[in-house]
């Protein structure tokens, strides 16, 4: 199925008798997803409205992420949450995954930039929520509920975002000598100071990475202050390349499963101590990507957060969801998709 | 304001209900009519109704016991923070028990390394910042009512303030909550970075106006305090030019922490009231930027360049703490000043910034048609308008006329692509206008969420949705099994 309008999509949904799997670019289906009949949303594409002076853009869900980014860049703007989509990613897939890059520590996630949605629920009804203004508390915020819902409540057809100005200058400081655990302390220190750090990550061959962005003089002032503050953690150098794209962990290793762990930065060192060295760490330690042998489960201490297998044969989430949360989750899925059409999602 | 008939069965069992509440939490129940009167309304004081009883618990455990009890007895519950809602969100019904969080004000955890703080939900907004101020941090969302309003109320209303252009509103700064469902179940939502493993339930709880559960504890993101902040005041001889200047500043990529707008009627009133020394002009902007002194200079130089293109009547840059205070003085006393001019209704619509000139012009026309003055003061950076409709509440028909004008202005906001409320919420105030913005299917989708969290529609049920739209759900109440979700 590849509908080319909201109406056609709604008809597809109300007519279907089988479970469907919603696919945007198909770059990031989690284990277990994609088992139903393929519902391709790439036919719903194009920018509907872009008002740079109001910092808002409205886009159809099947639009390529790269096309959205190019249109914004042409006006000196960007999606502030900096999604690191693989080539082919669609904006609907980004939202459905709440996919958010390094700037999340400063600018928030996809959910925070999303200000309006249109979607077709499991009954085939078109639903609108939010709008195209940044402040909106008119009724319940289904916008947030849809972000990260991975196609379990409905098919996103149109999305409104708040955009952000492209910073004129960026500067990345690096503490090359640090291992993951030592990096956490340095990153935390950087994020606890008023320097508006817009990226705080760690990569195995690179060490701790800290990014500053903004007006020229302002970046220079903050970089100097940060060097002083971080000197106690080790040597601080400025890097010339752009290591931030490397934070997109590739799922290409057939011998291993990729795990994504979200925790409190303060707990990251303890979580890490139980595991092999991570593939990357972002958000000041709150996001850890880890590769484990296929089908192996990580042995995790009790912590506030969760781990999810994002490549591999079978879905897995640790710890098991709280039963009350699971009941609410299931209740919502049943109300938005009474026939279980989107069961093909997992 | 139409409210549903109170449940006769509940009213008839009042004494038994109060006794049961007292048995659950002996020292926290108020049922003396002289005392429950203090809870008959919030800051939308035109509408009042004393509740059946008020309970002021101290712990999540007690809230859970009380909710389970009310659920079992079929008694409606209205959550209450500080009662500063401007939308009537915490106004009770006669058959409802108000569960107030005023005694739940503790700070439970401060973790500056994780840049978060955990507090009980009755704690006031400003005192959250107060608790972390010594460590060099602050909590960003800053509603003007921040001295009084509680975090639980902020979460329920997804409140914002002048600085949310840069820092976002409550939902962007909320990481998790402990919440009690109507049946007494305690649940934790959210997680580190606000991200849970499943659906973003936290995201829909924030802004749900106390209809999904009672938030008892909240984990909030805190930020390092900026090193400094400085405002400029830019005066213009037309509102349109001021609006165009706002768009140009944003377009140029400077992102100030706040851009506030005041029009002539508002400037006049505040000058008479607070003597801030504002220029005599049609409209003015207050733009504030943050950072170290040289960073501030760099940003202000850019803003000055942009503003010059619009030939401002005056560009007044603060050079000292005292000058900054004076620039903000008029803006901060605006609402008090309007109060001196007469009674007022404060609207809260949001519009796309691009529609600003058109909307201001149309508001002027409507104001003349209705014969009621309208003053404008608002957060211009994000299009959140607060037109104030001045009227005389004692003059027969004036309030009705003011409300009709208000409804017309809000319809205008929706018409140009905006919304009915940017920060105050729907409550009872804008309940019946919801159908202007949302179609029946859109409203039904929202109500399905309530069906899941509160299947019997006992929690603050007469708010947010037009009464005729929610009627079948509210009326079905007794027939639904408690765990229909
Ligand atoms: C190696 C790699 C690692 C990544 N790691 C992460 C990560 O850890 N976290 C993260 O959030 N992102 C991550 N991403 C970003 C990823 O690219 C995004 O999830 C997104 O760009 C996928 O877009 P897509 O169009 O290919 O979506 P798809 O892969 O087609 O779909 C992703 C999910 O979204 C649903 N979906 C797609 N379109 C719609 C729609 N219109 N309506 C409703 N549901 C829809 C699908 O059913 C599926 O559940 C990673 C990307 C790569 C390549
Ligand atoms: C002078 C003045 C200025 C204001 N300025 C602003 C402003 O700049 N920005 C802004 O956004 N608002 C503003 N407001 C509106 C108001 O202060 C906010 O809506 C605030 O968040 C309400 O908080 P409260 O604790 O007083 O809540 P209440 O008025 O007690 O309740 C508000 C709603 O929240 C629910 N509720 C309260 N506590 C809980 C809880 N713990 N769990 C679940 N539900 C709960 C209630 O049922 C009700 O629906 C202003 C109000 C006044 C009077």
Automatic annotation (TrEMBL), chain A:
Q: Does the keyword Iron-sulfur apply?
A: no
- What keywords are assigned to this protein? FAD, Flavoprotein
Residues covered by the FAD-binding PCMH-type domain: 1-166
Which InterPro entries does this chain map to?
A: FAD-bd_PCMH, FAD-bd_PCMH-like_sf, FAD-bd_PCMH_sub2, FAD-linked_Oxase-like_C, Oxid_FAD_bind_N
Phosphoprotein found in the keyword field: no
In terms of PANTHER family, this protein maps to: D-LACTATE DEHYDROGENASE, GLYCOLATE OXIDASE SUBUNIT GLCE
What's the protein name? FAD-binding protein
Automatic annotation (TrEMBL), chain B:
Is the keyword Oxidoreductase in the record?
A: yes
Gene3D superfamilies listed in its UniProt record:
3.30.465.10, 3.30.70.2740, Vanillyl-alcohol Oxidase, Chain A, domain 4
Name the InterPro entries on file. FAD-bd_oxidored_4_C, FAD-bd_PCMH, FAD-bd_PCMH-like_sf, FAD-bd_PCMH_sub2, FAD-linked_Oxase-like_C, FAD-linked_OxidoTrans_Type4, Oxid_FAD_bind_N, Vanillyl_alc_oxidase_C-sub2
One Pfam match? FAD-oxidase_C
Keywords attached to this Swiss-Prot or TrEMBL record, sorted alphabetically, are: FAD, Flavoprotein, Oxidoreductase
Q: Cofactors per UniProt?
A: FAD
Where on the tree of life does the source sit, at the highest rank? Bacteria
Give residue ranges for domain FAD-binding PCMH-type: 47-225
Q: Which SUPFAM superfamilies match?
A: FAD-binding/transporter-associated domain-like, FAD-linked oxidases, C-terminal domain
> What name appears for this protein in its UniProt entry?
FAD-binding protein
Please name the source species: Paracoccus stylophorae
């Amino acid at each position: 199925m590849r509908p080319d309008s909201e109406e056609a999509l709604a008809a597809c949904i109300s007519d279907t008798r089988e479970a469907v799997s919603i696919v945007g670019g198909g770059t990031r289906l989690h284990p277990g997803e994609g088992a139903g009949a393929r519902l391709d949303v790439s036919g719903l594409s194009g920018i509907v409205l872009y008002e740079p002076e109001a910092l808002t853009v409205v886009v159809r869900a099947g639009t390529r992420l790269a096309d959205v980014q190019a249109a914004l860049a042409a006006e000196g703007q960007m999606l502030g949450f900096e999604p690191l989509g693989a080539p082919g990613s669609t904006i609907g897939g980004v939202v459905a995954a709440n996919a958010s890059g390094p700037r999340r520590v400063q600018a928030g996630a996809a959910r925070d930039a999303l200000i309006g949605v249109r979607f077709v629920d499991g009954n085939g009804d078109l639903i609108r929520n939010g709008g195209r203004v940044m402040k909106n508390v008119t009724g319940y915020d289904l916008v947030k509920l849809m972000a990260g819902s991975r196609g379990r409540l409905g098919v996103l057809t149109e999305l409104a975002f708040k955009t952000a100005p492209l910073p004129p200058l960026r500067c990345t400081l690096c503490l090359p000598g640090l291992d993951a655990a030592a990096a956490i302390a340095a990153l935390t220190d950087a994020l606890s100071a008023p320097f508006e750090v817009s990226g705080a990550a760690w990569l195995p061959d690179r060490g701790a990475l800290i990014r500053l962005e903004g007006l020229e003089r302002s970046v220079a002032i903050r970089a100097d202050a940060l060097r002083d503050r971080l000197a106690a953690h080790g040597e601080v150098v400025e890097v010339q390349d752009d290591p931030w794209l490397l934070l997109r962990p590739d799922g290409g290793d057939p011998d291993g499963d990729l795990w994504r762990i979200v925790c409190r930065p303060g707990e990251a060192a303890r979580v890490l101590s139980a595991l092999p060295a991570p593939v990357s760490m972002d958000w000041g330690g709150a996001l850890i990507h880890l590769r484990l042998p296929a089908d192996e489960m990580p042995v995790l201490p009790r912590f506030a957060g969760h781990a999810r297998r994002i490549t591999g044969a079978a879905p897995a989430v640790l710890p098991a969801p709280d039963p009350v949360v699971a009941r609410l989750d299931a209740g919502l899925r049943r109300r938005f998709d009474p026939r279980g059409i989107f069961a093909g999602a997992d | 304001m139409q409210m549903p008939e109170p449940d006769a069965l509940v009213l008839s069992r009042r004494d038994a209900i109060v006794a049961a509440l007292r048995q659950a939490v002996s020292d926290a129940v108020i049922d003396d009519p002289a005392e429950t009167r203090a809870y008959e309304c919030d800051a939308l004081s035109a509408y009042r109704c004393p509740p059946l009883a008020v309970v002021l618990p101290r712990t999540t455990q007690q809230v859970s016991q009380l909710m389970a009890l009310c659920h079992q007895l079929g008694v409606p519950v209205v959550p209450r923070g500080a009662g500063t809602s401007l939308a009537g969100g915490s106004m009770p019904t006669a058959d409802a028990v108000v569960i107030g969080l005023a005694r739940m004000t503790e700070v439970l955890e401060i973790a500056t390394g994780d840049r978060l703080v955990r507090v009980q939900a009755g704690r006031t907004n400003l005192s959250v910042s107060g608790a972390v101020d010594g460590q060099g941090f602050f909590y960003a969302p800053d509603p003007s009512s921040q001295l009084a309003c509680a975090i639980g109320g902020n979460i329920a209303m997804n409140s914002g303030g002048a600085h949310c252009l840069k820092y976002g509103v409550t939902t962007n700064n909320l990481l998790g909550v402990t919440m009690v469902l109507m049946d007494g179940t305690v649940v934790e939502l959210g997680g580190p970075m606000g991200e849970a493993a499943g659906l973003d339930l936290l995201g829909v709880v924030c802004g749900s106006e106390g209809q999904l559960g009672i938030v008892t504890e909240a984990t909030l993101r805190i930020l390092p305090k900026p090193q400094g902040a400085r405002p400029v005041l830019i005066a213009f001889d037309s509102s349109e030019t001021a609006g165009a200047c706002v768009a140009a500043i944003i377009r140029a990529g400077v992102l100030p922490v706040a851009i506030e707008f005041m029009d002539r009627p508002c400037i006049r009133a505040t000058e008479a009231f607070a003597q801030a020394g504002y220029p005599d002009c049609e409209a003015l902007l207050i733009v504030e930027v943050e950072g170290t002194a040289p960073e501030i200079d760099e940003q202000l130089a850019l803003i000055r360049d942009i503003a010059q293109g619009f030939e401002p009547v005056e560009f007044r840059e603060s050079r000292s703490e005292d000058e900054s205070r004076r620039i903000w003085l008029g803006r901060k006393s605006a609402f008090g000043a309007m109060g001196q001019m007469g009674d007022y209704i404060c609207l809260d619509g949001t519009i796309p910034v691009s529609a600003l000139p058109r909307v201001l012009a149309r508001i002027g026309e409507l104001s003349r048609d209705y014969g009621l003055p309208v003053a404008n003061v608002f957060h211009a950076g994000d299009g959140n308008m607060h037109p104030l409709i001045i009227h005389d509440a004692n003059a027969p028909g004036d309030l009705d006329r003011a409300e009709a004008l208000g409804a017309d202005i809000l319809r205008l906001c929706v018409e140009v692509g905006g919304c009915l409320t940017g920060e105050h919420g729907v409550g009872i105030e804008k309940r019946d206008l919801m159908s202007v913005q949302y179609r029946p299917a859109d409203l039904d989708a929202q109500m399905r969420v309530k069906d899941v969290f509160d299947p019997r529609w006992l929690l603050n049920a007469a708010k947010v949705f037009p009464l005729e739209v929610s009627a079948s759900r509210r009326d079905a109440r007794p027939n639904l099994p408690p765990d229909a979700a």
